[in-house]
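#dry-run=false #mode=assembly
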Amino acid sequence: MNMPAPSDLQIRPDGTLRHLLSIEGLPRSTLERLLDAAQTLRPQALGGTALRQRLAGRTVCNLFFEPSTRTRSAFHFAASRLGADVLGFDVSTSSTGKGETPADTLRTLEAMGVDCFVVRAREDGAVAALTAAAKPQTALINAGDGRHQHPTQGLLDMLTLRQARGEDFSNLSVLIVGDVRHSRVARSDIAALRTLGCRDIRVCGPASLLPDAGELQGCTVGHDLDAMLDGVDALMMLRLQRERMVEGLVPSLERYFADYGLDERRLARAKPEAVVLHPGPMNRGVEIADAVADGAQSLIREQVSNGVAVRMAVMLELLGG
Amino acid sequence: MNMPAPSDLQIRPDGTLRHLLSIEGLPRSTLERLLDAAQTLRPQALGGTALRQRLAGRTVCNLFFEPSTRTRSAFHFAASRLGADVLGFDVSTSSTGKGETPADTLRTLEAMGVDCFVVRAREDGAVAALTAAAKPQTALINAGDGRHQHPTQGLLDMLTLRQARGEDFSNLSVLIVGDVRHSRVARSDIAALRTLGCRDIRVCGPASLLPDAGELQGCTVGHDLDAMLDGVDALMMLRLQRERMVEGLVPSLERYFADYGLDERRLARAKPEAVVLHPGPMNRGVEIADAVADGAQSLIREQVSNGVAVRMAVMLELLGG
Amino acid sequence: MNMPAPSDLQIRPDGTLRHLLSIEGLPRSTLERLLDAAQTLRPQALGGTALRQRLAGRTVCNLFFEPSTRTRSAFHFAASRLGADVLGFDVSTSSTGKGETPADTLRTLEAMGVDCFVVRAREDGAVAALTAAAKPQTALINAGDGRHQHPTQGLLDMLTLRQARGEDFSNLSVLIVGDVRHSRVARSDIAALRTLGCRDIRVCGPASLLPDAGELQGCTVGHDLDAMLDGVDALMMLRLQRERMVEGLVPSLERYFADYGLDERRLARAKPEAVVLHPGPMNRGVEIADAVADGAQSLIREQVSNGVAVRMAVMLELLGG
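#status=ok
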C-alpha cells in the first residue's frame, strides 16, 4: 500500500473536486460538502424526473478494467437519473483493448465526448495514474482500484452512519471486521472516519487478513471479535472473498463464521442501538448471519440507496451540473 | 411441473395485477384487459415519442439468470418507448452474483430504485419464489422460468391470434406441434387458450417430447402430424432445441423435419386461411420450412411486433403508468 | 476481394442514400454531401442537447456479429446524441443466434421497431447480403465487413484530411502504410481518396501484406518506406494485427517497426506540415512511435471525434431526421 495521497490530483487550488480518487487527502470540508449534497439529493435519487436536466447532454462512461455489475449499476442509475448519457465499456471482456494502453482507451473515449469516467482497475493507484492521460476538463471517479481505495463506498458508508447517528462522529465507536488487508472498502472507510473526527476505530480480523500495523495507526486492532464489541455504535462487516480459503489465509468458511461471523448473539454485545453495515455482496453464513443481515439493526439496503445519492453528488460536483 | 397456480401472488384482491408470473390462474377478464391494452398500444409500440411520459422516471431491470438477448431486447424496447430507464443485469455472465443469493441481488437493485424486474430463470417457479424478496410496490414479470411459463409469450400469441381470427376463440382449432414437454411457451399458450375459451386444442409431437397426460387434459394429443391438420385454424410450431438430439429424444433433425416439420404440403391440409406462429428463433428446415416461415400464412414477424405491445401493456398495468 | 460495387443497393434512383455499405460506388457528390453535413454537425457531436429531437422516437441497433466495443461506442454516441434509442445486440456473445440465420435475427429486431442497423460482420460482403432481408424503409450501415469495407472510417478519415488540408484533394500526396491486404480501412480510404480526386496515393508495406496489384491500380506501390516519404501530405498508418506474426507474414514486431514503424526521424522526411492518421487501436512501438502518436502532427484524436460527427451525418441522411 502506502500510495501517495493524491490530494494534489483530486483537489483544485480553489478547493473544488477535479477527480475523486481517494478518501485519503480529501479535506473534511470537501467530505462534508459531498455528504450534505448527497443527503439533499437522496429523496430524488431512486427515481423521478426532477433532476434530469442537471447533466443533460453530458456523457459518463463506466470504464471497467475489472468486471462489476453491481457498482456499475449504481453509477449507471446515478448518471442517468441526472440526465447524462451513460456508456458501459467493459475492457475486461472487450476485444478492443488488445494491445492498446488504458491511457489510449481513455483518450479515445474522451475524444468521443465522454466528460466523466468511472474507472475500476485491478491495480492499486491505476485510476490516479490514468488522470495523466485526461484533458483538463475531464473528470475521473475511482470505482475501486485493487486493494487501495473505493471512495464512493467510503462516502456512502459515512452518509449511512450520519443518518443513523448524527453528524458528530467524535464520540462514535466503529468496529470494522474481516479481511481488512485486501479491502479497499476498509481503507476508504478508515480514512473517512478519521477525517470526520471519529476517535474510536476498532479493527478486528485474523492476523492473516490484517494489514501492516503502520496502516492502522490510531486504530484499536485485535483478533478476538467477542472482546471488541463492547460499546460499539456501528459494525462494518467486510466480505470474505472465497479465494482467501484457497490461498490458505482462512482455514474454512465454517471456522471463519465461528470466529468472525456476526450473529445475533454477538450483535447483542454491542450497544443496543448499534447499526450493521456491509458493502455487499454478502456471503450469508460466512461473515454475517441471516438474522443480522435482515434484522432491524441492518442498514445494508439503506447503504445501497445512499450509494446512488452519493454518486450523484460526486458527479454533480465534478461536472458542475 | 404441477406448479401451484400463483394467482394469489400475481393478482391483488381488487383484481389488478401485482406481478405477472404465469398465465395459469389469470382470470379471463385480466387476460382480455391486457390484450385490449396491447391492441390499443400497438400503433405506438414500434417507435415514436407519444408514450414517453407514461413511465418517465421509473426504472425497469432485465434481471436475467439465463441469457437471452432476444427476449431482453423486446422488454428493453417496451420499457424505453414508455420512457422508463432500463438496466440490463445479466447474472449469468456477471461476477457479482458470486456467492450472493438471487434474492439479495434483487433486493440490492431494488434499493437502487428499480420498480419492475423482468426476470428469466433456469428453474421452474424461480420467478414466483423471488417475489417473496420484493417490496410491496415492486413488480416482477416472468420472462421465462425453466419449462414452466413464459406468460408474455402466451399473451403475444393470443394477441396475434385475435388479430387474425377475432376475439371469439370458442370455435377455433389450434394445433401445437413439437417439443411440448420442455416448452414454457406451449404451457403458457395452452393455459391462455383454455382461459379464452378455445375448445379444440390439439397437441402433436413424438412421445419423447410430450408431457405427462395429466398436463394435457382436454387437449387432443397425437403423434401423427398429418392426421391432425384437418380443420386447423392456427398452427403453433415450437422450436426444437438441438440438445434434444444429443439427449436421444429425437433420432435426427432430418427425421424430425420429415415427421413434424411444417412444409407447404402439410400446411395445405389445414384450413385455407390457417395461420402459422412460431416463438423464434426458428430452426429453418427442422421444425419449419422456409416457404412456410416466409409465406403468406406466417404471422411470425407480427408476433414479434405484438410482443413489444404486450410487454408495454403489462408494464403499464403493473406500474400504473 | 473484387466485391461488386453495391451502388445499386446503397443509392436510390433520386441519389439519396438507402444504405451505407461501401465507399466504392458512392458518387463524389454523395461523399461530399456527407462530409459537409458531418462538418456542420461537428460542434454538436460531442455533447449537448441541441440535436436530441432529430431522431427522437427512432431506434438504432448495433448488430455486431464480430465484437467491437470501440466502433460500437462511436455509433452509440452518434445515435443517442441525435435522440435515438440505441440497442446493442452482440451476436458473437449471444445465445440467441444459435441456429438462427443472420437474416432472421435482423428481421426479428426490425419487427421490434429497429429503423437502422449498424452491422459488423466477419465475412466480406455480409452486410450487403443482409440488405435483402430488410424492409424498404430499414437502413443498414456497414460498420466493417471482413477485409472489405469500413465506410464510416473512410468518411471520418476524409473529414480529418479536409479539415487539415482543405477540400481540394487533387494536389494531395497520401501515403498508406502497413497491412493493406487485410485492411477494410485501407480499402475504404483508397476508394474515398480516388473519388475525391486525389491523384497521388502511395501504398507501402511488406509484400506479404499488400493486396494483389489489381486492387491498387493507379496507386504507387512500394516496400521501402523511407523511399516513399518525400513530399507526403498525409500518412495513414494501419494497425498491425498481432496474428500476422503467428501467420508468418511478419518476422517480428521489432523488425516490423524497424521497417514500417513511423518514428520522428521518418516523419521528418515527409512535408513539414504532413499529418498523421491512425484508425486505432494503436500498437505503440509496432506501427507508430509514441513521439509521433502524441506529437503535434498527429490527428488521431481528431479522427475519433470526427467519427462521431460522420456517423451522425450518415444516420440523418439514412433516416431522414
